[in-house]
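Let's practice the habit of predicting before peeking. Look at the sequence and jot down your guess about where helices and strands might fall. Then scroll down.
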Amino acid sequence: MRLKHQTLILLAGLSWLVIGALLLGLGILFILTALKQPDFISGHFSILSFIERFVLDRANAVIVTITIALMVGYLKGKKVLAQTVARQIKRINSLPNPGPLKYLYSKGYYLLIASMTLLGISLRFWPITLDTRGAIDLCIGSALVNGAVLYFRELSRRAYLAKRENTSV
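Done guessing? Here is the structure:
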């Protein structure tokens, strides 16, 4: 299957958006579920218990945790993933137009996706509580959604340039 560059960029952005949204929902679910669990599990790190020491209230600790996780994810998306998106768009542009769908990502990128998936699955076995796992998922989800927006901005930029080119002729 061969697709235009714009379609490949859209698919890359949509995949980041869908995975990011799933992680955001999962992170919120984990944090809210942790509210009903005991504060401390022996030998496990709890971000809510840590933050609660400073805000003196469990509900405020949830708000602070979610806010920090979203901000860290946003900054990671803005600083780190922006470079990844730029490289990915450049790579897509180097493909023939229309390009094969199987080359949406490079082999190395597929390995990165697989390793990140395994890392996410391995969080179940780490000595952390559900709220901490939720905060990690929120960070990653927020970063991926921000990265998806960068893909969509590129599509918007292309549409604007194409429109401008058509009206100037």
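How did you do? The chain has a mean pLDDT of 86.
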